[in-house]
Specification:
Layout: E1 2-9, E2 14-26, E3 32-39, H1 42-55, H2 67-77, H3 86-106, H4 110-114, E4 120-125, H5 135-147, E5 152-156, H6 162-176, E6 181-185, H7 192-202, E7 210-211, H8 219-228, E8 233-235, H9 241-250, E9 256-259, H10 261-264, H11 266-280, E10 284-286, H12 290-299, E11 305-308, E12 322-323, E13 326-328, H13 341-347
Parallel strand pairs: 4-11, 5-6, 6-7, 7-8, 8-9, 9-10
Antiparallel strand pairs: 1-2, 2-3, 4-13, 12-13
Helix pairs in contact: 1-3, 2-3, 3-11, 5-6, 6-7, 9-11
Length: 355
């Protein structure tokens, strides 16, 4: 468990702590593959831990390089539990740890294993501009992101009154000027009618995208909105597994795809989503987990933006290197990050071993 200070809020969630599930997979030769996912509270983390326990017999004793075969075994193994929600999340962290392990065994980064497209990734600041910030705070935070070298940033919207969202977006746009990219995350909270009115009203601010504008993840509603406005619709962070993205793409529900590693099905699932995005000619960006996702965005054929959040920074020995608004892709084996064992030990709430 890692505290979040100050307390943050979007249209859907309020956070003062983030709970992480850290997974390590060991080989008989002593190599270790590691990955992490996150949740809002200890009960969800406990459920995820139990699901990883259920999956472990399908993984332990296998050749870790057979990632596709192991992924298929887990996919078949969860058919009775459901192929969305926490089951996919548990599967994702196992798969991601396997890819880190394969990278370490081979001496290559995960990006190199997947086929690296770029040595850097466009990055946007996402650790501020919350829905609870007043206008002066929004202006101050936005200017600080520019001072820190970011060329793009994301703010939250989805307030009950459209007028308040419009005022907030106007304040940030005026603070950063016309040349800095600005995204608005509406948090999947608004009705189609409210979202449509708000998106039309915000078009004048030249936003990079509207993210998750409509409640209930309705692909038909998102498709209708995407057809009616000029600003791109970014959608997908709450969509599960490659099959979910296939439905999203076929329904033309997004102009810009966003995949969440722990809902995508890990690195293997992300890789398949990246292929779907490439075939559809759609840009693909990541959701949180930047220490893992920097490798994935850099290897995706249409990889676009890395969401930069610092919540998990202290869990790692290394930090993401930012240069001119871009993240440098680590060339160290695996994901290129090691646990900060002292900090992990301090934050540890429970530990389980599956053999």
């Amino acid at each position: 468990m890692v505290p979040v200070q100050p307390v943050i809020a979007s249209a859907t969630v309020k956070l003062d702590t983030v709970w992480y599930l850290l997974a390590d997979i060991y080989t008989d030769d002593g190599a270790i593959g590691s990955a992490y996912i996150w949740s809002y509270n200890p009960r969800i983390s406990a459920a995820l831990t139990n699901l990883v326990d259920q999956l472990s017999p399908l993984v332990l004793g296998q050749d870790p390089r057979a990632t596709a075969r192991i992924w298929g075994s887990m996919w078949r193994g969860i058919v009775q539990w459901g192929r969305s929600g926490l089951t996919i999340m548990a599967m994702s962290v196992v798969d991601a740890a396997l890819w880190d392990l394969v990278g370490k065994i081979s001496g290559q980064s995960v990006g190199q294993l997947l086929g690296l497209r770029s040595d850097t990734v466009m990055t946007y600041a996402s650790g501020g501009l919350w829905i609870t910030d007043d206008l002066d705070s929004l202006r101050r935070e936005a200017r600080q992101f520019v001072t820190d070298g970011f060329k793009t940033m994301k703010m939250r919207a989805g307030r009950p009154r459209a007028e308040d969202d419009i005022a907030a977006v106007r304040a940030v746009r005026e603070a950063i000027g016309p040349d800095i990219g600005l995204m608005a995350d509406l948090g999947s909270t608004l009705s189609r009618e409210h979202a449509t009115r708000l998106c039309f009203a915000l078009e004048e601010f030249n936003l990079v995208w509207f993210e998750d504008p409509i409640a209930d993840e309705n692909t038909i509603d998102h498709a209708e909105l995407a057809r009616s406005i000029r600003t791109p619709i970014c959608f997908g962070e709450k969509i599960y597994a490659p099959r979910g993205f296939q439905t999203l793409i076929e329904g033309r529900a997004a102009d810009h795809l966003m995949a969440d590693l722990q809902r995508a099905g890990g690195v293997t699932g992300w890789q398949r989503i990246a292929a779907l995005a490439d075939a559809a000619g759609l840009p693909l960006s990541s959701h949180i987990l930047p220490e893992i996702n920097v490798q994935l965005v850099a290897s995706a054929p249409t990889g676009a933006y890395l969401e930069y959040m610092q919540w998990a920074d202290e869990l790692f020995e290394e930090k993401i290197v930012l240069r001119n608004g871009e993240a440098v892709v680590p060339m160290r084996p695996g994901f290129g990050f090691k646990w900060n064992e002292d900090r992990v030990r301090h934050a540890l709430q429970s530990q389980s071993e599956f053999v």
